[in-house]
Design brief:
Number of strands of chain A: 13
Largest sheet of chain A: 7 strands, mixed
Largest interface: A-B, 41 and 41 residues
Structural class of chain A: alpha/beta
Distance between the termini of chain A: 14 Å
Oligomer: homodimer
Shape of chain A: globular
CATH superfamily of the largest domain in chain A: NAD(P)-binding Rossmann-like Domain
Number of helices of chain A: 12
Radius of gyration of chain A: 21 Å
């Protein structure tokens, strides 16, 4: 039985779902794959829990019930303040799971944490897009020279193994990747079409359900989808810069636009597209014929079309969702545990 | 630069498309991934070509133009008769690419070739379903004890990385996999719906286009789709036996059945399903509502739905096609070359 020590940095919705899923499934996983996954440290924005021998299932489940940014109050293994170095000094994790929120201005704290983890010899799994969008080359190079793995399949279509699939198509020349990559705006557009809400009403409904954030600008201005296109472009080896991606705001769509489109047999979708031959990318409002596959991708579903020199395929699944994304992060952790040398 | 020596055993449509694709792409692949893939031997049913230093691009392209079962006539490296041991004695391939046709009665010659290759220390990539359907455990165990890789993503939805994606979902409890897994019968049904052909006419058209074989029984009796369900069941760790799979023949569908279904807003599809909770599997004729995703999968497209305890996703792409399948085989070869220790 191979034992793997994991540090979880960032303990919001996905972090908690990850720790909870692991607590519930790790017995099954150890039977199925012969690996024992121990959580030796968790950090949130204000504190840390460090237990070098590994938290037990009960402790993991209890931690998931602590108020947000409150793990420093969790009994004897907890302390106030975050010091990633202390985690590595005391618990020497093999895998660093970086689940801090995305900050596209700086990439922090994700970027510093990821580089620190690699320098200390840990493989890295992350769901945070910002460090990759801003510093993909630096991170991948840091991992490469140390023969460590950096995995990030939860960053695009987080509830599915889309990126894993795309990166496995190594003999293909990927010509185009396009689709509906942002669940929040797709939910808003679906509400506008199905329940005839205007944009503001649909946005408020999405916020009330926790689908949209209090500040929804990253989603509705197309920045989140553009960030995903950047990561896709690196995965297929044809990198583009986020500043070069043309973006339209979904907020400009009125209920009248929707009704006009429907009358013509169309639906309005918010489509992210990377043309890897012309090396251009965009996040645009598009009218899609009602019998097109994209027209059927509604609510919080995501869907994507991959066109290569040899084939074409469609992939439809959950873009996010805390439980779905937690499984995707865990899939990366399991793959590293099975393949990694640490 | 890492050099990898490949033996290709089986030189029909997929074998030729594989060798041709490799000849055209290996320069790009070596630049992109730092691996040099040499073809050191090719065998068809009647002869072999062995060149331990590796065939050059021109030789590879010329070989693809030799008549079927005729490579023994190919100049100085060729000889009559097939002796896999001689390939290993003379050229010591690192990767064995097994592309012989499927024989579900015996699994041969694939099974013997695969085990021989593993015993001689070669990783194995195959597109031949029969050895896996009959001897999955034996083959995987033989590879495991020798720390070799056995890859077979071209066996299900051959033109896509479906199996790779499914096997990467390691944290998921896969509850159901269902879909349209046989391109030939889906093409026939699409012709019946769109061009109002009866079954025999549609079958003859498929045969004339090379989509159906002269003896189409493996496809139309559901055996091919059932074989794919068996491989899927092993990949998700819940093996079922092919003899336990309930199969209906697609040949029993009349044009009247199709017209009746269409009048009710349905289409008739040939659906393969594995229920991994009840551990039952079937290949059945089903009426599918016209707005269902499966109803939109027409012609030689394949489509599949994966339902796990955490998510649900759809995947649509080419089931076969020689070029598409050749790329899928090559993706496996590249993955082995990048990861394998040999």
């Amino acid at each position: 039985m191979k034992s793997i020590n994991v540090a979880v940095v960032g303990f919001g919705n996905v972090g908690r779902a990850f720790v909870k899923t692991l607590a519930l499934k790790r017995k099954t996983l150890s039977e199925k794959y012969g690996i024992n996954i121990n959580v030796v440290a968790i950090a949130d924005s204000k504190g840390m829990v460090i237990k070098p021998s590994g938290l037990d299932d009960y402790e993991m489940l209890k931690l998931c019930e602590v108020p947000k940014s409150g793990i420093h109050m969790f009994g004897s293994y907890a302390k106030q303040g975050v010091d990633i170095a202390e985690i590595y000094d005391k618990a020497a994790p093999n895998i660093h799971v970086e689940l801090t929120p995305a900050n596209y201005a700086t990439g922090e704290p994700g970027y510093t944490n990821i580089v620190f983890a690699l320098k200390r010899g840990a493989h890295v799994v992350t769901a945070n897009k910002a460090p990759l969008v801003l510093y993909y080359r630096e991170i991948v190079e840091e991992a490469r020279i140390r023969r460590l793995m950096i995995k990030f399949r939860a960053t695009v279509m987080g509830g599915t193994p889309f990126l894993e699939m795309l990166s496995s198509m190594k003999s293909h020349d990927i010509e185009k990747v396009e689709g509906i990559l942002n669940a929040t705006t797709n939910y808003i557009l679906t509400e506008m079409h199905e329940n005839l809400l205007d944009f503001e009403q649909a946005l408020r409904k999405a916020q009330a359900l926790g689908i949209a954030e209090a500040d929804p600008s990253l989603d509705i201005e197309g920045f989140d989808a553009a960030a995903k296109l950047v990561i896709i472009s690196y995965v297929i080896g044809k990198p583009i810069n986020i500043s070069s991606i043309y973006r339209e705001s979904v907020a400009q769509i009125s209920l009248k636009d929707v009704l006009d489109a429907v009358k013509q047999g169309h639906v309005i979708k918010y489509v992210a597209a990377l043309d890897a031959q012309k090396m251009v990318a965009s996040v645009k409002i598009e009218k899609v014929p009602r019998d097109n596959v994209f027209a059927q991708i509604n609510g919080t579903l995501n869907g994507v079309r991959i066109k290569s020199d040899a084939t074409e395929l469609f992939f439809i699944g959950r873009g996010g969702g805390r439980i779905e994304t937690a499984h995707t992060v865990l899939d990366d952790v399991i793959e590293v545990a099975l393949r990694g040398s640490a």
